[in-house]
Structure formats: C-alpha cells, structure tokens
Amino acid sequence: MQFHVKQGFVQDETADLLVVNLFEGVTEPGGATRALDQALNGLVTQVIAAGDFKGKLGETQVLYSGGALTAPRVLITGLGKQADFGLAKARKAAAAAAKKARELGVARLATVVHGAGAGGLDAADAAAALVEGTLLGSYRYRGYKRAEGDNGKPELAEVVVLEADADKLAAVQQGMAAGQVVGEAANWARDLVNEPPNYLTPSEMARRVVQRAEAAGLKAQVLGEAEMAELGMGSLLGIARGSDEEAQLIVLEHIPQGVDPASLSTVALVGKAITFDTGGISIKPAENMWKMKGDMGGGAATAAALVAAAGLNLPVHAVAVIAASENMPGGDAIKPSDVVTAMNGKTVEIISTDAEGRQVLADAMCYAARYQPDAMVDIATLTGAIGIALGSDLAGLFCDDETLRGRLAAAGELTGESLWPMPLWQPYRKLLDTDAADMKHTGGRLGGSITAALFLREFAGEQPWAHLDIASVSWQEENSPFAVRGASGFGARLLTELLGAYAG
C-alpha cells in the first residue's frame, strides 16, 4: 500500500472515497468535515440530525456525493467521545475507515489526519496512528485460497493524506513514514501467526524471520539443536524431542547505524514460538486444537518489533531471542515426571508436557541474559488461566521493576495493546517445590498464570524483567469494526514502543 501526503482540502481531492471524522455527540461538524458538509449542501448535517450517525468509535457512514464533488463517495468515521480521545482511538478510527473502504472495493482513498485538529494530537503522532490504523484495518491474510480479491473488488492500494497547513506537512510526512514501518511489521507478525503449521515449521519460521531481519539491516543467526545441546539447553530440547522438526533458536540484534552500542541501553526481548502445540504426551482435546498454530505469537511479535526498530533506526541496542519448536507426542517425547536441566544448571521436573512454553522460554531467557541487558521482557501465549482472569482485551503484565512496569503500561496505552498488572506473589513460589529436582514447572490450576511467571523469574537473570502473557489476546475470534478474525499481532507495536522508550 502506498501513502502520500499532500497539501490541500479533502473536498477538492479526486479519489474513490474521501474520509473525514466526527466526535460522538457533535451536532454541527467543524473543520474538514464542515467544509465537506457545505460542499454537499448540508448532507452530513442531515445525517446527524436524523440520528443515522452518532460519531461512536468504530461507527462509519457512507454518503454519496451525487456529483457535488469529484469523488463519488464520502465516509465519516466516528472518533468516540472527545473527552476520552487519544492516539489509540485515532488509530481505531482509521482502522474502521480502512476496513469499510476494503469492503467497498476502494482502490484510492483520501483522508484527513484524525485528531490533529480539534483532537489536540501532535501532527506526527496522529499521522503515524492514521497510517498504522489504515494498515491494521485493511489487513487480510491471503493464505492459500486460489480466489483473488474480495469477490472481484480491488484492494486498497493508495492512500492520500491531506493536510491544509503547510507548516505541518513535514511532521505529517515523518509520522506517516514511522507509522508505515510499524504497521507493516505488525501485519507481518499477523501473517506468521495465521500461517498453517505444515508450512510454518520451526526451520521455515527461522528462514522467514532471518530473511526479513537481514533485509531490514538486523544481525541474525540461528542455532540448531546441536549448538543448543553444547550450551546445555536441556529444557528447550526436552520439548523438541517429540517432533521430527528440528528446534531453532533465532537470535536477532539491532544496532543503530553509526552508533557505538556500548553507549546505548540494551533491551532483550524473548519470544515463545511453538509453531504447533499438541500438548505433547499431555495431549490437548481435539476441539480447537487447530488454533495452536498460533502458539508462536510471542515469537512473531518479538521478531516484528526488532524489524520495526531497524526500520525506525531507534537509538537502542535491542536483542531478540526466539525459541521455535513443535510440541508433539512422538516416541521420544518428554514425559510427565521427567527431569531436564536448563542452561543455567537448574533442574526442572516436568508435570505436564502441555506447559511447554515456559520450558523453551527458560533456556531462551538464559541465552538472552548473556547480553547483559538493562531490561528483559519475555512474551508468550503462555496460560489459559490469564484469559479466565482478564478476558480477551487485556494481556497479563508480570514485572519486578517499577520503571519497566511503567514503561510497558505506557506503551500499552499508546498503542492500544492493553496490559494489566498481575502479582508476582512470592508465597506461591513454594507451589513449585518438588523432591525430584530444583523445582517443578507448574504449581497447579489455582494461580496458574502467577506460578508460571514465578517459574520464569528463575531464569531471567538479575536485570529488571517483565513477562507478558498474551494467550487470550493474540487471536481475535470474531470480526470487529477495526479488525478481522484471526491473528491480532498483539505485542509487535507494544514492544516497538517500549524500545523507543529506552532509546537515547
């Protein structure tokens, strides 16, 4: 998709669709929406007066110009209540408009920057949100369908962003460029999660990630099972034993151009990438097992964040360590009551082979600690328990450092990828005690997300650390005004924003 900025007024532009906006409860439109209303002889005002459009977030209304404009159609997208407005809502308004445009078969769209006027947003930030939202809202996973397009309708290919104020053009252009980098990276993460597991094996995921990473200017390497064995990664390799597909440890590194990495903050991101999870010997029920192709959502988000950091040339030293494996019930599969030894020498008794994510993360976190980061964040579709606690809108945030917790919460608010702080309740650590090893890897059903986080803390090292449990937010069950059913890409934009917070 191509994006262009142009000085001008939306009502004068020639396009398949013109996009303006309205806050909820507004009866007399202002700014660009008012100018367009006047060009349409009060049609927008009539629609508002009739109660057909209220300006709620996610609401859209298509109007037909009847020859009053050079564009045949106009779309109003709701911004929600002005008192609650911010970047996340500006992004959603753009996504709703783009999704509607795709449904209409619009190939060329012209739009104002939502929120840069009466919304009070910085022009560059608002432009970035506009482009991100447009990319996210127009996303569609193509997969392996033979049919092209939406019932023969063209795809949205070009977006013209109109800004009347010449003094804002440079800021809008800058924001648009940043938004395109981040939006495209997030959609790439969605592609990876949506991909069928027979196509996206651990080795194929490693190939695709390395290819995209090197194209973005990242350093990339992949460790195979023999190299992991030399490092003592018995925890990760224990999970990989049941599959004929070889596990891969993908390591990416972003060092901004022309900067000594020693002068920068180092942030390590660790992602779980189980490309398919049967549960192993502790096999899952057949119903909904197909969704376990998405058990690599944390790894996809981590890779996308590094690609975005490179595209933005963020002044931060960022490292990603992604543990990719299948979890299968093969003849050599790990069994409940087996004991494995992690890279840091700690021994772990396996209770359920379906608690495989924390096992692969344990060794990946030990590896990431070798970079002596200033902060480490792991991200994983780890526990079903987090969805019981927080539902499908919030990811769980476990963190042992106030500064890191605050930066993650702020990043979640800015990106709309919302986090909720969860307790690292130390008394529950005793639930991981066992006679057979240094610890067992599960503490039972009660407090399952908490004990999983406490287990991971044993492998994080001494620097500030956070664990993001995204099991309930990485997959969207139903279509919404802003997005389509399937992978959400949760974490890609959040982690990019976090890396930006450490830049300097």
Write the layout of secondary structure elements.
Blueprint: E1 2-7, E2 17-22, H1 31-39, H2 43-49, E3 60-64, E4 73-78, H3 87-104, E5 108-111, H4 123-137, E6 158-163, H5 169-194, H6 202-216, E7 219-223, H7 225-230, H8 234-240, E8 248-254, E9 266-277, H9 297-312, E10 317-327, E11 339-341, E12 347-349, H10 356-369, E13 375-380, H11 385-390, E14 395-399, H12 402-415, E15 419-421, E16 439-440, H13 448-457, E17 465-469, E18 475-476, E19 486-487, H14 492-502
Helix pairs in contact: 3-4, 4-5, 5-9, 6-9, 8-10, 9-14, 12-14
Describe the structure.
Helix 6 (202-216) runs parallel beside helix 9, helix 8 (234-240) runs antiparallel to helix 10 and helix 9 packs across helix 14 (492-502). With 504 residues, the chain is α/β, with parallel strands linked by helices. The chain has helices spanning 31-39, 43-49, 87-104, 123-137, 169-194, 202-216, 225-230, 234-240, 297-312, 356-369, 385-390, 402-415, 448-457, 492-502; strands spanning 2-7, 17-22, 60-64, 73-78, 108-111, 158-163, 219-223, 248-254, 266-277, 317-327, 339-341, 347-349, 375-380, 395-399, 419-421, 439-440, 465-469, 475-476, 486-487. It has 2 domains: 2-182, Leucine Aminopeptidase, subunit E, domain 1, CATH 3.40.220; 197-502, 3-Layer(aba) Sandwich (Aminopeptidase). The strands form 4 sheets. An 8-stranded mixed beta sheet has the order 7-8-10-9-13-17-14-15, sandwiched between helices. Strands 1-6-5-2-4-3 form a 6-stranded mixed beta sheet, sandwiched between helices. A 3-stranded mixed beta sheet has the order 11-12-16.
